[in-house]
């Protein structure tokens, strides 16, 4: 890789690097590196690249501590910013890739006139009566009404104590609408749900725990003091963020059992989540269901085309007008129809701290880059004499520029590798945090690629200014001064 | 020290000098804001709860089958817990300060008023102020005959029957001052529903809300005499001596299991744990900010060392000439120190402007207060010190250049 040099290690370390570098360049003894070519000469571009690379490595080796400093600065900056960018990327990800644009969250405004303000957003959930009305209207391609909760499960085994499982009470369109994958069996039917059937779909993790992973369809599980028949087992499925109900915590949350909503209403099972009431509304504590002046359910629809979405929004306005005519609603129609990503954006699901930390990390990267620009400039300018000699021997400005950029590119590449290692360490640190999103902080392939692109791109950008400045040297002046 | 020669030298290295100034400015701006953010987080983590934190335990149990009479079950549980040795006092509550899960109500001072005055949290539970150790500073505590069963209250609310609802409340002094500034709050009415007003009968010294995300509204708290039945959302709060907490918790759990062996314990923790969990993100953020500040200062210091070393090496000959012409080692040393001081001062001045701009951005996007002026001199002194420390090594090396260098051709 390196050519035999007439100088020993001692000579390389000598303070007068410029002079020694000149001789290196002049005394280049043998191929594969051809001597610098004259202006406009384009032959053997590959050879030139190899030669420049070699020059870059020599130059970097000559001043080890400075090179290490530049690499360290780049690595720290890249490591910090990639750690936070990955966290941000994971947290603002699409929970239903390919489908999220078709899934909408209708909002209507059933509140009384008190507290009304122009342009105020309607409530973030629906009342039971409105939810059921919209569900039964069936105007969308798929629609599901749901709420969250938790139920005690008695495994009726000697080796397992009773425990609580996270539950989703929903109507059965939930599964096809959200593409929830079934491992065994299927959901209960719409009619069964209306008949308050005691059937349950369980998650794979619960199936593993209770039945050792066997096909448990048809088996009985005892929850909240009654027997439920298992009709389906979901395969591993955990959309992040938990978009369909953000009250449960936005990240890394998954239900273990899915129960028919109507059965839950019948049995008054415990609910988790938020209940917002107005007027004389109340309830939602213990076994008391919230009254009709309270919103506490989520209603989701699937609308396959933009036309259907527009028509559905129209339908929501009509529904509000109709309810107002009936005297139930008091406000003018105030509806929203956001798709999944718009809803997550509106709910500001990515924690503010994470956005702040990402900004901070990029500020840090900026300081590291300015640092590198300064050091590189000083380094390149110190080689003015060497560059002057090369110019005098016929190297074009472009050739010098390329040579210097390759040198900064090498720093960027090594810094990128260091940054990647630091980012892996940084993500490990993030995973040790107690936050709910901690477990999700992993580097994926696209972020790996971005890390390298960012490192090399940023360093090349940082090398542009010093390289350009160094190429401006007048060769004659440099030769004369020595 | 003569500044003019330094300036004329710097003029020949304009680009490098400006880059160093820019780096110092960015570091100064980020460090000022980061230190300020750390201060904010520490202040938040220090938020008073108003309760005897080191003497409290929280337990939540859930019955696998709903008891026939949840009120009787709760009374039985409380009586059982009172028998546990080491227990000083027992209360039931729907929520705890910093517990996150909360019940809140919109307060109106006149039932007809269109917009709410504010939103306050509502504690429901018996024997609360006594057990929590929150001091009553005016009026009286809630009495057993103030209490209404929650189910009866919900029914009354649905039918508009005022009699079935609670009629009195306790509020914190912060809330009292916010609602009726400079007036006696006792005897005044608060409307959570249009049907009936709650008469303020007592004022609590301090009691934080479970969802105390904003330090300004953290004490907007009411205690309403609603009797809750046993349910998985209800907490038993136990007051004990700090050193007894571990064994009292174990004994209390055993006693509750004795009442019904099939119940599931969902929460068992000391109030110290409650506080730690609630502020864990603030702690993580403050920790990360400290590391960012350290890394920034190190990178900037190393950058200064690197550039100064280059300049010293580049000016060896000049230094030699100066030494030969009679400059002392101290002169050379001071030259580089002054040069760094000038660059740092310019950087700091620029950094202050940047720090202010970043703060303005954070104020609009993250609801942070204005950066207090005290952070500016602190940031300036920190960067001056870092700059002087970083340049000392290269400057000493420069001072060590012998005059004989001047006589050598290269």
Properties at a glance:
heterodimer, A: 482 residues, alpha+beta, two-stranded antiparallel sheet, 16 helices, 13 strands, elongated, disordered N terminus, B: 410 residues, seven-stranded mixed beta sheet
Per DSSP E runs of 2 or more residues, the count of β-strands of chain A stands at 13
CA distance, first residue to last residue of chain B: 29 Å
What Rg of chain B is obtained from the alpha carbons, in whole angstroms?
33 Å
In DSSP terms, counting alpha (H) and pi (I) runs of 4 or more, how many helices of chain A?
A: 16
The proportion of strand residues of chain A reads 5-15%
Shape of chain A: elongated
Number of helices of chain B: 12
The run of helices and strands of chain B is HHEHEEEHEEHEHEEEEEHEHHHHH
Measured distance between first and last alpha carbons of chain A: 31 Å
H/E topology pattern of chain A: HHHHEHEEHEHEHEEEHEEEEHEHHHHHH
Share in β-strands of chain B = 15-25%
Which runs of chain B of at least 5 residues are low in confidence (pLDDT < 50)? none
What does the model show?
The complex is a heterodimer of chains A (482) and B (410). Helix content of chain A is 48%, strand content 14%. Chain A has 482 residues and is an alpha+beta fold. Chain A folds into two domains: 177 residues, no CATH class; 221 residues, no CATH class. In chain A, strand 6 and strand 7 form a beta hairpin. The two termini of chain A are 31 Å apart. In chain B, the strands form three sheets. In chain B, strands 3, 4, 5, 7, 8, 9 and 10 form a seven-stranded mixed β-sheet that branches. Chain B is an alpha+beta fold and 410 residues long. Chain B has two domains: 171 residues, no CATH class; 225 residues, no CATH class. The longest helix of chain B has 38 residues. Chains A and B meet through helix 4, strand 2 and helix 12 of A and helix 2, helix 5 and helix 9 of B.
């Amino acid at each position: 890789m390196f050519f035999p040099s007439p100088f020993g290690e001692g000579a390389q370390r000598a303070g007068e690097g410029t002079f020694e570098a000149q001789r290196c360049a002049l005394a280049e003894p043998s191929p594969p590196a051809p001597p610098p070519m004259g202006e406009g000469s384009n032959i053997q571009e590959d050879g030139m690249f190899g030669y420049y690379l070699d020059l870059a490595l020599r130059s970097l080796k000559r001043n080890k501590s400075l090179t290490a400093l530049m690499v360290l600065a780049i690595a720290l900056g890249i490591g910090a910013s990639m750690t936070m960018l990955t966290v941000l990327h994971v947290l603002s990800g699409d929970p239903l890739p390919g489908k999220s644009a078709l899934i909408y969250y209708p909002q209507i405004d059933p509140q009384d006139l008190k507290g009304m303000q122009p342009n105020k957003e309607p409530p973030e959930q629906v009342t039971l009566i409105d939810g059921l009305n919209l569900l039964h209207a069936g105007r969308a391609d798929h629609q599901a009404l749901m709420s969250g909760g938790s139920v005690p499960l008695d495994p009726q085994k000697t080796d397992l104590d009773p425990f609580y499982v996270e539950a989703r009470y929903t109507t059965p369109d939930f599964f096809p609408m959200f593409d929830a994958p079934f491992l065994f069996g299927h959901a209960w039917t719409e009619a069964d749900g209306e008949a308050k059937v005691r059937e349950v779909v369980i998650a794979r993790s619960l199936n593993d725990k209770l039945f050792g992973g066997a096909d448990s369809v048809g088996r009985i599980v005892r929850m909240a003091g009654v027997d439920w028949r298992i009709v389906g087992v979901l395969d591993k499925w955990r959309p992040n963020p938990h978009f369909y109900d953000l009250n449960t915590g936005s990240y890394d949350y998954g239900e273990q059992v899915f129960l028919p909503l109507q059965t839950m209403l019948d049995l008054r099972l415990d609910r988790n989540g938020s209940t917002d009431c107005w007027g004389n509304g109340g309830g939602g504590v213990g076994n008391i269901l919230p009254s009709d002046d309270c919103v506490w359910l989520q209603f989701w629809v699937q609308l396959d085309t933009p036309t259907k979405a527009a028509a559905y929004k129209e339908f929501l306005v009509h529904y509000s007008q109709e309810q107002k005519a009936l005297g139930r609603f008091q406000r003018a129609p105030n509806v929203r129809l956001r798709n999944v990503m718009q809803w997550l954006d509106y709910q500001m699901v990515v924690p503010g701290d994470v956005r702040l930390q990402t900004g901070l990390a990029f500020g840090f990267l900026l300081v590291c880059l300015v640092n590198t620009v300064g050091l590189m400039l000083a380094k390149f300018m110190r080689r003015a004499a060497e560059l002057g000699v090369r110019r005098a021997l016929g190297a074009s400005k472009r050739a010098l520029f390329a040579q210097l950029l390759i040198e900064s590119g090498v720093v960027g590449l090594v810094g990128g590798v260091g940054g990647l290692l630091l980012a892996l360490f940084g993500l490990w640190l993030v995973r040790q945090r107690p936050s709910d999103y901690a477990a999700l902080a992993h580097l994926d392939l696209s972020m790996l690629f971005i890390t390298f692109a960012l490192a090399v791109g940023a360093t090349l950008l940082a090398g542009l200014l010093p390289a350009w400045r160094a190429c401006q040297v007048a060769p004659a002046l440099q030769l004369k001064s020595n | 020290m003569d500044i003019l020669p330094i300036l004329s030298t710097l003029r020949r290295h304009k680009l490098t000098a400006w880059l160093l100034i820019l780096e110092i400015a960015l570091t100064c701006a980020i460090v000022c804001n980061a230190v300020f953010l750390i201060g904010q987080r520490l202040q938040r983590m220090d938020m008073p709860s108003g309760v005897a934190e080191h003497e409290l335990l929280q337990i939540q149990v859930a019955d696998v089958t709903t008891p026939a009479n949840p009120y009787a079950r709760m009374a039985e549980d409380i009586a059982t817990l009172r028998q546990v040795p080491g227990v000083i006092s027992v209360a039931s509550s729907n929520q705890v300060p910093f517990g996150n899960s909360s019940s809140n109500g919109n307060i109106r001072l006149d039932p007809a008023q269109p917009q709410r005055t504010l939103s306050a949290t509502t504690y429901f539970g018996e024997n609360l102020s006594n057990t929590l150790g929150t001091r009553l500073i005016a009026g009286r505590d809630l009495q057993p005959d103030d209490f209404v069963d929650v189910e009866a209250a919900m029914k009354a609310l649905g039918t508009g029957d005022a009699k079935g609802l609670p009629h009195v409340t306790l509020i914190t002094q912060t809330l009292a001052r916010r609602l009726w500034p400079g007036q006696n709050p006792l005897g005044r009415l608060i409307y959570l529903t249009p049907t009936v007003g709650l008469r303020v009968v007592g004022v609590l010294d301090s009691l934080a809300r479970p969802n105390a995300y904003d330090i300004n509204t953290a004490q907007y708290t009411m205690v309403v005499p609603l009797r809750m039945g046993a349910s998985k959302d209800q907490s038993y709060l136990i007051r004990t001596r700090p050193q007894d907490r571990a064994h009292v918790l174990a004994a209390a759990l055993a006693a509750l299991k004795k009442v019904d062996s099939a119940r599931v314990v969902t929460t068992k923790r000391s109030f110290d744990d409650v506080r730690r969990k609630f502020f864990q993100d603030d702690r993580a953020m403050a920790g990360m900010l400290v590391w960012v500040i350290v890394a920034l200062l190190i990178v900037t210091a190393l950058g200064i060392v690197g550039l100064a070393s280059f300049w010293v090496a580049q000016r060896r000959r000049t230094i030699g000439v100066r030494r030969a012409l009679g400059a002392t080692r101290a002169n050379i040393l001071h030259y580089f120190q002054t040069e760094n001081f000038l660059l740092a001062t310019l950087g700091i001045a620029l950094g202050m402007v940047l720090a202010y701009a970043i703060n303005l951005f954070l104020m609009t996007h993250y609801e942070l207060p204005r950066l207090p002026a005290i952070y500016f001199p602190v940031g300036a002194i920190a960067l001056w010190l870092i700059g002087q420390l970083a340049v000392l090594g290269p400057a000493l090396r420069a001072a060590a250049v012998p005059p004989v260098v001047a006589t050598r051709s290269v």
